[in-house]
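Continuing the batch. This is chain 6 of the set; chains 1 through 5 are on the previous pages. Same settings as before, nothing changed between runs. Recording input and output for traceability.
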Amino acid sequence: MKIKIPKNLAPLARAFRHANVEAYAVGGLVRNALLKLPPSDIDVCSRLTPAEIEELMPGQAVRVVPKAAEMGTVELHFNDVRVEHTTFRSESYASGGAHRPERVAFGTNLDEDARRRDFTVNAMYADLHTGEVTDPTGGIEDLNKRILRATSDDPDEIMRSDALRVLRLVRFACELGFAIDEGTWLAAKRSAAQLCDIAPERRREELVKILLCDARYVQLGNDEQRSPLRALRLMDELDVWDSLVPEFRLARGMAQRPDHHRYDVLEHSFHVCAETPPEEALRLAGLLHDVGKPDCVHETGRFYAHDKYSEKIARRILSDLRFPNRTISEVSALVGGHMYDIQNQAKPETLRTRFSEWGRERTMNQIFLREADIRGCGYNTNYVAGRWRTLFREMLLDGTPFSEKELKITGKELMAASGLPEGKALGQLKHELYLHCVKNPQDNTPFRLKALAKRRKR
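Output for chain 6:
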């Protein structure tokens, strides 16, 4: 069996051929080629050590970038392509699952290298020169069966060596729509507690990929096997939330008003997350929007103001997982605002002001989250926030400013019209004009703004 090696890897293939060294593409590139999917990460391997790679490549117009030489890994950069090269190796681990082997031994053959990898469908190798596929662990058969199975006869060893593979198991299953081998599943469940030993950044990266699993290969279509809802439920069955969102322990089984909610707090959170569009901030906000309900009930005896509890807890969770500050602010703001105007009774002028304060992007996301929250209750599954959507559309069409910078008057023009010098009073006037134009967008013209400023002067 052969695959077509991407043309952009030709310079690398030539470099290895020049050195008379067999080299192989491995992992996602081979798996996806056999599934007729776009290439995943480009990983290659050979018997060459990092030092030998550094000696070989410069003469072949390939730049070598050190990455983890002790693990046999370097990056190869050429023609805007980045490839990770790893020396054939075997390794052994202590208990803990933190993905730091006690011993690494560089090898010379594929069989030894394959046994250290995670799943059989990721342990297939394609010759960089010919595309011929070598399959030491039975990945082709598992690919045809659409099943994920550990490369070793001892799946506990595979999971124990890097507990992040517990999350990777869920991700691949839900990106590809594959089933999971029972022995591999049980081994993952036994190793789930070791996820706490994994660096927060690595847990964060896998969590985001899991939440966006349905967007990874859109050409596969939408079905239950490729849904974030399946992924979240698998994660719950594996008991991984202690390493990601510990508060979910109390959300599991927490009942809600049956006339409003078909699900408990945890299952509702899963549904809301899955109902949002496949964007990182929205999926995270959907997942965490009710995370404060257990604490809120414990402290107050009711769910009222749970949005404020959830905002605070979401910020802490995202910080613990080392999310960027921008993501933390964006997600926690969405969580904190998800109960605004829940009775749908705010006046249009009030909504205009709030939407303008939120800005265009957050307003749209807040609408998406509101709709997902209602659908995630299990009853109004076709709910659309019609009033919010209609008003927001009007604001986009009528030229409503969404910041003071969008007022159609310069600072100099405002000073001339109002007679005010630059300072606090001028800033207050600009803000008043901004709020006026949010409610009266037809006045956001240079002529009208100057007239309003002159009236203030009088």
